[in-house]
Design a protein that fits this description.
It is a single chain. The protein is an alpha/beta fold and about 350 residues long. The chain is built from 18 helices and eight strands. Strand 2, helix 2 and strand 3 form a beta-alpha-beta unit. Helix 17 packs antiparallel against helix 18. The two termini are about 20 Å apart.
């Protein structure tokens, strides 16, 4: 059985993702196409405009055979954790190929970056000068683009597997706000917010969208009512950033103003947003440090081909199709984050029922 994997976020699913799916099939001719997806929160700290089951349905209806979830705690960390944990899941699924998008689409050059031994002393100096980690690493590696950075992360993780990497050319600027047949997720989210027609950009309809600013009142209240000492115990909070966040929560009642005044050369927008997610979901440093190694794979949906792959896996692969069977320490975090997300939906109870119901089957 030939298995091809994709690592995705689908925030939201759009024509660029459909291109990715079709190109992966063209290049690898797989028996099964697997997508590892983030859930209701994404790697850059964004809340997902559509919930993970809408992502799953869109994926299955547009060429994916099996959709599995990257746990929240790995999704909402830096690119290295996100990429390496996703690759680990693909490896457990006996994947043969990983197809990813890249701005440069120069696989050999990206492999060279992946093999670099980072000069830690120089990296620390760049960060001491006020540069963020991604920028500092980029300066050491001739300044890589965002998806090239992810590609390097994938390639580092793939070195310990038999999975073959395949790069395809990214077809648009991920920050572009222009609407076209293939548009960035950023542009589509903005268009949805502005009530513009997005029908030419995506095969799906977006109902009950959620935006980052919808979560801000919750976060702001926590920053108002918790001491700096309490906030310092939250996962990813460090270096006194909690004091800046508390001050800015008082100064700014607008989410964008809050974010813009919290970002610095040391703290990127993505890093700030990831910290805010941990605050919103009350994820503590102690509970994360106590997590056991991830030994389960949460299935969000599948078709007949995906089902055949699941049946073929060895018994030592812990496949979870029911929420109740997620290992307890991870389940507690997933439950809290699901409740947070559902509280922003018009029909949160319907979402929670789906969370507990099990995977989508086509």
């Amino acid at each position: 059985m030939k298995i091809t994997g994709l690592i995705v976020e689908y925030n939201p699913f759009h024509n660029g993702h459909l291109y990715h799916i079709n190109k992966a099939k063209e290049l690898t001719n797989p028996d099964v196409l697997v997508a590892i997806t983030s859930g209701n929160f994404n790697q850059r700290g964004d809340i997902s405009i559509i919930n993970k089951f809408d992502k799953t349905k869109a994926a299955l209806e547009n060429g994916i055979d099996l959709v599995v979830e990257l746990p929240y705690i790995y999704t909402t960390q830096n690119a290295y954790v996100f990429g390496s944990k996703a690759v680990d899941i693909l490896n457990k699924l006996n994947t043969n190929y990983l197809v990813f998008g890249s701005e440069t689409n120069n696989l050999e050059e990206l492999k060279k970056y992946a093999q670099l031994e980072v000069d830690v002393t120089r990296l620390k100096q760049l960060m001491h000068d006020g540069n963020s980690y991604p920028k500092s690493y980029g300066l050491l590696s001739s300044s890589l683009y965002p998806n090239d950075m992810l590609a390097v992360t994938y390639l580092k993780a793939l070195a310990n597997t038999n999975i073959e990497p395949i790069s395809i050319q990214r077809t648009n600027d991920y920050l572009s706000q222009d609407l076209d047949i293939i548009s960035s997720a950023t542009a589509i989210r903005k268009a949805v917010k502005d009530n513009l027609d997005i029908s030419k950009t995506t095969p799906i309809k977006i109902n009950d969208p959620i935006f980052n600013e919808d979560l801000y009142p919750y976060i702001r209240n926590i920053l108002f009512t918790h001491s700096s000492e309490q906030l310092s115990k939250i996962f990813l909070v460090s270096e006194g950033i909690e004091n800046l966040l508390k001050d800015n929560a008082i100064k700014y009642d607008n989410y964008e103003d809050f974010i813009n005044n919290s970002v610095s050369r040391r703290y990127t927008k993505s890093r700030i947003q990831r910290i805010l997610l941990q605050i919103a979901n009350n994820i503590t440093k102690n509970e994360v440090s106590a997590l056991p190694d991830n030994n389960y794979i949460r299935v969000l949906g599948f078709n007949n081909k995906g089902q055949e792959l699941l049946k073929s896996l060895k018994e030592d692969v812990n496949i979870v199709t029911q929420f109740k069977n997620i290992p307890e320490a991870y389940k507690d975090i997933e439950w809290r984050t699901s409740l947070t997300y559902s509280s922003l939906l018009k029909d949160g109870q319907a979402y929670i029922k789906q969370e507990l119901k099990g995977p989508i089957i086509l």
